[in-house]
């Protein structure tokens, strides 16, 4: 009971914080604007309409319209058999959803945040990810686990962890990290249609951000391929890889760097597993310098994997050591000033790029 | 104020009339002031002895005028009470209260519900310890054909366990786990189901697969992990799985199959299928969080699933007295709003009847059912365990001999004239021979090829795995001396 209150209030307090952080971002005044929230909602709506086996399940997804309003209007449209409000048991409803998937339904399971998915992680890994392999193809699990991931604003350590590296290390899962509305629509549709279990990591602070979308994106058959990264900004001098919210930071850093004559290439990974190693390596072979950016903890993070991949495949092309920018190696502090210091900022990316280009004083030897 | 006084006087007289007509305890002999006040201020109300409880009442004003005003003030409350009195249970004469979740009657005596009831929930059985039918028992009759098939399967299961266990001891397979003592649960529960019913086992239910036609060779192939294994050699022994038999692959983490079963049952419900899900769990597994989630959820979504708990007294070395403090598992059903029964797990006919009835209810009424089968784990937990280290040998021997479900059922089948000593010997010899052959054949069968190492991770092989596989093939090709000759690619 308390848990429900806690989570409800959380959702509401975050909704209040959101307007202060969201920024309107438009690349073309002619194209339509769509928030990430609406992108996800429309994707869910269209996939549920197209396939009767798709159904949504999670805490507050029905009557409450979704803790972050992602599932707004869906209960009304599809009824309680296809939009299920669950009791508070992540382990329970993840298990039930996996069972339903074993029998051919296509559940979309919402975790209020991926921090709570830790209570269900046995079902995600041992019941979902490994089942197709361990049953030798007899039990497939066409399930999607989605929800906000990573830091929000002022929510403390147990609500701010990024799980990209955790889930991406497990074979059998696919892990997607949308950034823009186009990503959100295309990747969620792809995830729902995919016969394998997919972990879909959204970002709460991005829900309210608007992006321009073309007519192609708005079409109900639109779908993005899983495992392909997108080059958001073409450049010559340095490659910056990022995913989710950090893509926005990387793009801003690139604008700042342009004034200093550094032309940065920004890669939006979109897919952490499978990782688009060929796009990353092709880019590094062109620019010869690499900075990886992520919100999560540095050790065993996504950047570590990218760095290893580049060293393995493109070592001779590197003109500078690869640098990883990640969250601070501490549980996320609550105080606003400390929280800001614990998460990568645009300035961190700018400084790191300059170091990679030997345009600044090198870092002192690591303590 | 004046108007209000008039109205309330009428209300009081109506109040009195109605109560007189209802013949309520405090009757028409004037509502004496004290009881009138009590009734208004202390809804603890009348109790069965007809007396008011006088605790917690306000001090009664002595001045008649103020008294009358107080009564008038309270009469609007009394009017509401009258309405609730008229609608409450008349046998208790208690008022009831609305809360989210519905009306409950209340009580002013403070009673804690006892942690255990005076008597344990009784256990349903049909055959006595000697296999004689108990008079006047309810049970589902079985035909000779079914009875003989049940008995033969129980014997086969027993022999299969013995031989595979020995094979592990000889180093021919890496691991095994027996169902000794639980043959009736395995076979009789399976016999009461149809092939469309979906099974989510724990790990001590291979008899269910045996009943459905999984051959001794197929069992051996899985234990030896060869290329004929439906699991493609990816799992340790006894982790059987067969889609065509509607038997979901055994998964090691305990109790995860319970919420999954609720999910599958929900899927059957959405498809309107005339089938149910049967999920098995041991006494130990009921301590897992998934037990709570699975049962609770199944009850809430009204899913057609049978939760079958094999309470065999031991979870490796943890005795049931250390596992829970409830009267077994059956009492937990009511906590979730699930209909439940406790059955003698060593009585094949009782298990058969209970599961048959449960299946009808689950499908026709679209509800979950909980069955607790009391039994005893005669064998060790697995080949990695020596249970004499934590329990008395006498106890094991007693259950193995005096309470053997196979002997018990054989007596009944023989008394029906459907089985003979000769058939017994023939069957046992035949099964033993088949098993020994099956193991030999399984041992000689090739192991799965290299291509099966990388398949099924995803629905469609991703490029990185294709690269890894090619890399490995290249390495094997270039260094054949480093790799066993019998690895087929």
TrEMBL record, chain A:
<keyword id="KW-0670">Pyruvate</keyword>
<protein>
    <recommendedName>
        <fullName>Pyruvate dehydrogenase E1 component subunit beta</fullName>
        <ecNumber>1.2.4.1</ecNumber>
    </recommendedName>
</protein>
<dbReference type="Pfam" id="PF02779">
    <property type="entry name" value="Transket_pyr"/>
</dbReference>
<dbReference type="InterPro" id="IPR027110">
    <property type="entry name" value="PDHB_mito-type"/>
</dbReference>
<dbReference type="InterPro" id="IPR009014">
    <property type="entry name" value="Transketo_C/PFOR_II"/>
</dbReference>
<comment type="function">
    <text>The pyruvate dehydrogenase complex catalyzes the overall conversion of pyruvate to acetyl-CoA and CO2.</text>
</comment>
<dbReference type="InterPro" id="IPR005475">
    <property type="entry name" value="Transketolase-like_Pyr-bd"/>
</dbReference>
<keyword id="KW-0560">Oxidoreductase</keyword>
<keyword id="KW-0786">Thiamine pyrophosphate</keyword>
<dbReference type="InterPro" id="IPR029061">
    <property type="entry name" value="THDP-binding"/>
</dbReference>
<feature type="domain" description="Transketolase-like pyrimidine-binding">
    <location>
        <begin position="34"/>
        <end position="209"/>
    </location>
</feature>
<dbReference type="Pfam" id="PF02780">
    <property type="entry name" value="Transketolase_C"/>
</dbReference>
<dbReference type="InterPro" id="IPR033248">
    <property type="entry name" value="Transketolase_C"/>
</dbReference>
TrEMBL record, chain B:
<dbReference type="Pfam" id="PF00676">
    <property type="entry name" value="E1_dh"/>
</dbReference>
<dbReference type="InterPro" id="IPR001017">
    <property type="entry name" value="DH_E1"/>
</dbReference>
<feature type="domain" description="Dehydrogenase E1 component">
    <location>
        <begin position="153"/>
        <end position="449"/>
    </location>
</feature>
<dbReference type="InterPro" id="IPR050771">
    <property type="entry name" value="Alpha-ketoacid_DH_E1_comp"/>
</dbReference>
<dbReference type="InterPro" id="IPR029061">
    <property type="entry name" value="THDP-binding"/>
</dbReference>
<keyword id="KW-0560">Oxidoreductase</keyword>
<protein>
    <recommendedName>
        <fullName>Dehydrogenase E1 component domain-containing protein</fullName>
    </recommendedName>
</protein>
């Amino acid at each position: 009971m308390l848990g429900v209150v806690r989570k409800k209030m959380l959702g509401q307090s975050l909704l209040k914080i959101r307007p202060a952080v969201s920024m309107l971002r438009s690349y073309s005044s002619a194209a339509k604007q769509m928030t990430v929230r609406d992108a996800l909602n429309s994707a869910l709506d269209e996939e549920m309409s197209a396939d009767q086996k798709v159904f949504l399940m999670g805490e507050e997804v029905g009557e409450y319209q979704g803790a972050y309003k992602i599932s707004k209007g869906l209960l009304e449209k599809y009824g309680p058999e296809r939009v299920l409000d669950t009791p508070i048991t992540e382990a329970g409803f993840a298990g039930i959803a996996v069972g339903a998937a074993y029998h051919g339904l296509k559940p979309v399971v919402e975790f209020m945040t991926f921090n709570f998915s830790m209570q269900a992680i046995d079902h995600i890994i041992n019941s979902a990810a490994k089942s197709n392999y361990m049953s030798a193809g007899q039990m497939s699990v066409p399930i999607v686990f989605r929800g906000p991931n990573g830091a929000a604003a002022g929510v403390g350590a147990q609500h701010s962890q990024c799980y990209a590296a955790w889930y991406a290390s497990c074979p059998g899962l696919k892990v997607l990290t949308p950034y823009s509305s186009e990503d959100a629509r295309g990747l969620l549709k792809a995830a729902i249609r995919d016969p394998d279990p997919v972990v879909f990591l959204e970002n709460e602070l991005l829900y309210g951000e608007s992006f321009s979308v073309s007519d192609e994106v708005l079409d109900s058959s639109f779908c993005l391929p899983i495992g392909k990264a997108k080059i958001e900004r073409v450049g010559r001098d340095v490659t910056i890889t990022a995913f989710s919210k950090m893509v926005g930071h990387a793009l801003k850093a690139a604008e700042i760097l342009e004034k200093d004559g550094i032309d940065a290439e920004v890669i939006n990974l979109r897919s952490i597993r499978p990782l688009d190693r060929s796009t990353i390596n092709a880019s590094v072979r062109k620019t010869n310098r690499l900075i990886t950016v992520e919100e999560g903890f540095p050790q065993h993070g996504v950047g570590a994997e990218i760095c290893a991949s580049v060293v393995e495949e493109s070592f001779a092309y590197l003109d500078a050591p690869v640098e990883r920018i990640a969250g601070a190696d501490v549980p996320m502090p609550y105080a606003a000033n400390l929280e800001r210091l614990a998460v990568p900022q645009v300035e961190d990316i700018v400084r790191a790029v300059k170091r990679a280009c030997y345009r600044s004083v090198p870092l002192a030897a690591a303590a | 104020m004046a108007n209000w006084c008039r109205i309330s006087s009428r209300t009081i007289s109506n109040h009195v009339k109605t109560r007189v007509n209802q013949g309520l305890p405090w009757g028409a002999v004037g509502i004496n002031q004290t009881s009138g006040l009590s009734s208004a201020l202390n809804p603890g109300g009348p109790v069965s002895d007809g007396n008011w409880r006088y605790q917690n009442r306000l001090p009664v004003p002595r001045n008649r005028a103020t008294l009358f005003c107080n009564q008038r003030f309270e009469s609007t409350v009394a009017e509401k009470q009258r309405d609730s009195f008229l609608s409450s249970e008349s046998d208790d004469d208690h008022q009831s209260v609305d809360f989210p979740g519905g009306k409950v009657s209340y009580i002013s005596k403070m009673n804690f519900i006892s942690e255990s009831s005076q008597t344990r929930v009784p256990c349903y059985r049909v055959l006595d310890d000697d296999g004689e039918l108990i008079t006047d028992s309810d049970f589902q009759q079985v035909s000779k054909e079914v009875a003989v098939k049940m008995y033969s399967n129980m014997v086969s299961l027993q022999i299969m366990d013995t031989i595979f266990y020995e094979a592990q001891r000889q180093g021919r397979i890496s691991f095994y786990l027996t169902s000794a003592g639980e043959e009736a649960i395995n076979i009789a529960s399976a016999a009461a189901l149809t092939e469309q019913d979906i099974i989510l086992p724990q790990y001590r239910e291979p008899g269910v697969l045996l009943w459905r036609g999984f051959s001794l060779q197929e069992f051996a192939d899985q234990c030896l992990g060869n290329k004929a294994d439906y699991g493609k050699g990816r799992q340790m022994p006894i982790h059987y799985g067969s889609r065509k038999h509607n038997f979901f692959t055994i998964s090691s983490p305990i109790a995860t199959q319970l919420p999954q079963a609720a999910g599958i049952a929900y899927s059957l419900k959405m498809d309107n299928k005339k089938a149910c899900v049967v999920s098995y769990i041991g006494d130990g597994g009921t301590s897992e969080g998934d037990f709570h989630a699975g049962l609770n959820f199944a009850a809430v979504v009204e899913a057609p699933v049978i939760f079958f708990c094999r309470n065999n007294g031991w979870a490796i070395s943890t005795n049931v007295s250390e596992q829970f403090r409830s009267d077994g598992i059956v009492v937990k059903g009511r906590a979730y709003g699930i209909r439940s029964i406790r059955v003698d797990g060593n009585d094949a006919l009782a298990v058969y009847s209970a599961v048959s009835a449960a299946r009808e209810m689950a499908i026709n009424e679209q509800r979950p059912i909980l069955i607790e089968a009391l039994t005893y784990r005669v064998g060790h937990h697995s080949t990695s365990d020596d249970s004499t280290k934590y329990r008395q040998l006498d106890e094991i021997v007693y259950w193995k001999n005096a309470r053997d479900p196979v002997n018990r059922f054989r007596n009944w089948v023989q008394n029906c004239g459907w089985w003979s000593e000769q058939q017994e010997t023939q069957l046992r010899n035949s099964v033993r021979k088949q098993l020994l052959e099956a193991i030999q054949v399984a041992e000689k069968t090739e192991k799965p090829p290299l291509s099966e190492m990388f398949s099924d991770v995803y629905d469609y092989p991703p490029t990185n795995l294709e690269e890894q596989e090619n890399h490995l093939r290249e390495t094997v090709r270039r260094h054949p001396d480093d790799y066993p000759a019998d690895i087929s690619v």
